[in-house]
Amino acid sequence: MKDHTILTQPPETLTGLSVSKPSKIAAGLKAVIQSMEFAWSEGGVGRGTQALLKLNQKDGFDCSSCAWPDPDGHRSVAEFCENGAKATASDADTRRADPEFFSKHSLAELSRMTDRDLNNAGRLTHPLIRRPGATHYAPITWLEAFALIGRELNALASPDEALFYTSGKVPNEPAFLYQLFVRQFGTNNLPDCSNMCHESSGTALAPTLGLGKGSTTLHDIHEAEVILIMGQNPGTNHPRMLTALQIAKKKGAKIIAINPLHETGLDHFKNPQDFMNPIKAVGTLVGKGTPIADVFLQVKINGDMAVLKGIIKHLFALEEKHPGKVIDHRFIEEFTAGYEAFRINSRQDSWNEIEASSGLSRKEIEAAAELLAFKDKIVTCWAMGITQHKNGVDTIKEIVNMHLLKGAIGKIGAGTCPVRGHSNVQGDRTMGIWEKPEEKFLDALKKEYRFEPPRKHGLDTIDGVKAMHEGKLKVFVSMGGNLLSASSDTEFVAEGIRQLKLSVYVSTKLNRGHLTTGETALILPCYAHLDKDMQRSGQQFTSCENSMGVVSQSKGVLDPLEGEMLSEVAIISGMALATLGEKSTVDWVGYTENYDTIRDSIARIVPGFENFNEKIRKPGGFYLPNGPRHRQFNTSNGRANFSVTQIEAHELEKDQLVLMTIRSHDQFNTTIYDYNDRYRGVFGERRVIFMNTEDMAERNIKHEQLVNITSHFNGQQRRIERFIALSYDIPKGNTAAYYPEANPLVPIDSVAKESNTPTSKFVVVSIEAA
Fold first, then answer.
1. In sequence order, which residues have a C-beta less than 8 Å from that of residue 739 and are 6 or more positions away?
2. Residues in contact with 729: Cβ distance below 8 Å, sequence separation at least 6, in sequence order
3. Could you tell me if residue 752 is inside a domain?
4. In the beta sheet, which residues pair with residue 706?
5. How many CB atoms lie within 10 A of CB 286?
6. Are residues 413 and 492 in the same domain?
7. Pairing relationship of beta strands 550-554 and 542-545 according to DSSP bridges
8. 199-209 and 392-406 are packed helices; what angle lies between their axes, rounded to 10 degrees?
9. Which of 65, 264, 311, 448 maximizes the CB count within 10 A of its CB?
C-alpha cells in the first residue's frame, strides 16, 4: 500500500558523504570548470554558453543569484561567478517538468525526492492545479486559473484574509504591478523575503542614517583603507565580491574578517577572470592567489556586538593618547546627534564582558581597532550572520556608531554595506513591496490611479505564517520563492499552509513548497530573467536594483522552452483583471503589452525614477538618490544618530550549544544544485552538523557519527534526526548546519527585536548520538 503522506522536509536518506580538508583558495580554475559543467549539462553547450556570455552584460540580463553590483565601466566577457553560472544554468535547463511529468508523480512521491532532484526535474511549462483531495497536479488553462483566483479572493470576508508573498527575484516592473494589484484589492499583506534576511539592516539604518539601504558604491570598496567583513561568506554567497576585495588589497587596503567559521573566500582568492587572459592565466595556475583577510577574528556566534564594543572602547583609549587623531570630532559636531549618551555608554562596557561574549582576547580586539584608528576610509560589510540574531538591529546600530565616530560615511572609500541576496530584493522594497508602506507612497498611488489604498499596516512573513496557523488566512499567493523551506519552523509553516483554501505559486522550477498546499493549489509557470519576453509591442525588458542602488535593465536572450509560460507581468495582470474587473482604474492590458507604460507610471510615483524610460536605456543604468552617501541624513531630526546599545546576555544550560544555519557552496538560498560544499571539504551529503572537537569529546560523539539534534526555546523542543557529526574548526559551544535541513529547529517565535527576523543564526540545541 502506497504511503500518501507528503513530507515537508527533505528525506532523511543519506546520499553518500566523503570529507576532505577545507580548501585554502577560493575560485580559481576549479570554479571555471564547475561553471562550465553546470552551464553545459543543463542548458546544453550552445544554449548555456549563449546565456553566460550575456549574463550581467549591459545589453544582457541580470543574474538572479545575488545583488552584487556590476562595474560601472568596462565589463569582462565573463562577468559572472560560479554561483551565477549555476543559477543561470538552472534557468536555462532544457528539461521539462510538464503535465506528463506530474501525471507520473504524485505529490507524496515528489516529496520523497531530494531538493536537488526536485530542482533538476526541469522548467515548469504549463499551469497546473491540485484539486481538493487529489494526489497529483493536473493541467488547467490560464483563464480557468485566473478565474479561480478571482473567485476565491472575492469570496473572502476581508481582503486581509489573503497574503501576497514576494521573492527577491521579481524585477521592478512586475513588483510594482503586484503591489498595485494587492492594494487595489484592499490589503497591505505584502511580506517578502527581506523580512527573513536584511529586515534588521533597514530597521537599523533608517533611524540612524535616514535610509534603509547601504551607503557605498563599488568604487568605495576599491578605495577603502580598511574593510570589515562581518557575518558573511563572500566566497560562496557573493563570489564576485572577492574581485572587489582583490582590487582593494592591491591598493593597500587592510581587511578584517569577523566570523565563527574560517571562510575560504576570505583566505586566498584566485580570480577566475584571469583565466580568460592568456598572459595572466599562466601565473594564476600556480601559487596561492591573493591573500584577502589580514586579520581573522573567530568570534563566538553572536559575539559581534562585543567585538564592536571592544573596538570602539579601544578607539576612545587611543584618542586620549592621540587627541584629534582618532575620533572625527568635526564630523560628529556638524552631522550627528546622541554622541554624549553613546560615549558614556561605551565607557561602561567592561573588557571582561566583551571577552566573555566575543570569545576573543582583549589583545586580538585591540589589534583590529589599531588598524582602524588612524584611518577614515572604512567600509563595513555584513550579511545574515549579523541580521538573524535577536539583537541584530542593535548590532547594526553599533556598526553605524563606529562609522559615525570615525566620520567614515559620505566620503569616497567609506560607508555601510549590507550585502543583499536575491537580484532585486532591494528593488522590490523600492517598488512598494512592503507591509508597512510610507504614506507618501500611498498618496502617490492614490493620485495616479484614483483609488484609496489601504492604510493599515499588513502582515510580515513571520506574522503571516502565524496568521495562517491560526486559520485567519484563506488565500496565499507567492510570486516566486519557497516560503515553506525558507521560513523558520518548517512543520509549523506546513500546518498553516494546509489550512488555506487556496495556495498559488508563480514559479520557474519545482520546489518543496509546491508540495505542501492549501485545499486547492495552483502552480503558474513564468519566464526567468534569461527568457525572451515577447509581447504585442515587441520584446520587453525589465529592471533590477542592486545592493548599491544602481537600477539597470535586464533583457532575456534565450527562446523560452515550448509550453505555456507567461511573463510575471502577464500573470499579475491576469489575476488583477479576474479579481478586480471593472472596479480597477488600471490599464492592465496596456501594461502587459508594453512595459514602457509601467515605467512611465513608476516615474510619476517613486522618487528617483523620474524619466525612468530614458535613464534605464543608458548602458549600465543609473544610481538612485542616496542621502547618506552625500552626508544628507533624512532622519526625524535631520542628523545621523548615535545609538545606545547593550551586549546581549545568553544563558545556556549544561550540555546546550548554539547552532547557526548556513549555506553550502552548491546552493543558492533554498535552491540546491548539488550535495557538495567544496570549500569546507564536504562532498555528497547535506545532512551534516559541524562541531567543535572538544564539544564532540564531551558528548562521546565521534567524527562522522550519526546524531539527533533538539532545539530548546521557552520550554518547547523541536527535533531533527540522522545528521552526521563532523569535527570542524568552530568555536567551542558553537555548531553549524545547512538550511533548509536545519530550519525545523528554528522556533517561529524566536525573532530579532524590532525587525521580527527569524533568529536562524542563534538556535539553542542539544546533540546526542542517534
1. 485, 661, 662, 663, 670, 760
2. 22, 261, 262, 298
3. yes
4. 724
5. 7
6. no
7. antiparallel
8. 40
9. 65
Name the pLDDT band for 422 (thresholds 50, 70, 90). confident
Q: Which grid cell is 548?
A: 548599491
Q: Are residues 229 and 156 in the same domain?
A: no
CATH number of residue 761's parent domain = 2.40.40.20
- Per residue, the 3-state secondary structure of 211-280, as one string, reads CCCCCCCHHHHHHCCEEEEECCCHHHHCCCHHHHHHHHHHCCCEEEEECCCCCHHHCEEECHHHHHCHHH
Fill in the DSSP letter of residue 726: E
pLDDT average, residue stretch 375-403: 97
Q: Are residues 761 and 617 in the same domain?
A: no
**For the chain, what is the domain count?**
3
* Domain closes at, from 601, 624, 647: 624
Can you give the residue range of the structural domain that contains 684? 657-769
What does DSSP say about strands 290-291 and 667-668: parallel, antiparallel, or unpaired?
Answer: unpaired
Residues 191 and 203 in one domain: no
Cell numbers found for residue 663: 549555506
Rounded to whole angstroms, the Cα distance separating 52 from 77 reads: 9
Confidence of residue 433 (pLDDT cuts 50, 70, 90): very high
Looking at the domain assignment, is residue 27 inside a domain?
no
**Contact (Cβ atoms closer than 8 angstroms) between residue 448 and residue 601:** yes
Mean of pLDDT values over 348-369: 97
Would you list the DSSP string of 323-367?
TTTSS-HHHHHHHEE-HHHHHHHHHH--HHHHHHHHSS-HHHHHH
What H or E segment, with its residue span, contains residue 671?
strand 671-672
CATH of the domain at 179: 3.40.50.740
- Both 187 and 294 in a single domain? no
pLDDT tens across 710-762, in order?
999 999 999 999 999 999 999 999 999 999 999 999 999 999 999 999 999 99
Kindly list the distances between the CA atom of residue 551 and the CA atoms of 205, 481, 554, in Å, as whole numbers in the listed order: 21, 22, 10
Q: Are 507 and 523 in contact (CB under 8 A)?
A: yes
Task: Look at residue 558 and tell me whether its pLDDT is greater than 60.
Answer: yes
- The residue from 352, 385, 418 where one domain ends is 418
Query: In which region does residue 186 sit, left (phi positive, over 0), alpha (psi from -120 to 50) or beta (all else)?
Result: left
Q: What mean pLDDT comes out for the span 373-386?
A: 97
Which grid coordinates belong to 138? Answer: 493536473
Question: Same domain for 168 and 219?
Answer: no
Answer yes or no: are the C-beta atoms of 695 and 735 closer than 8 Å: yes
Beta strand pairing call for 128-130 and 138-139? antiparallel
Same domain, 480 and 589: yes
**Residue 256, CB-side half-sphere exposure with 13 Å CA sphere:** 25
Rounded to an integer, what distance in angstroms lies between the CA atom of residue 63 and that of residue 399?
A: 29
Looking up cell 483566483, which residue turns up?
149
**What gap in Å lies between CA 118 and CA 114, rounded to an integer?**
6
- In this structure, what DSSP letter does residue 58 have? T
Is 283 among the domain residues? yes
Question: Which residues are within 8 A (CB) of 183 and not within 5 positions of it... i.e. 6 or more apart?
Answer: 432, 437, 442, 445, 453, 454
Look at residue 646 and tell me if it is in a domain.
no
Q: Is the confidence at residue 5, as pLDDT, over 60?
A: yes
Alpha carbon separation from 690 to 15, 259, 420, 687, 736 (Å, rounded): 17, 15, 25, 10, 5
Mean pLDDT of the chain: 92
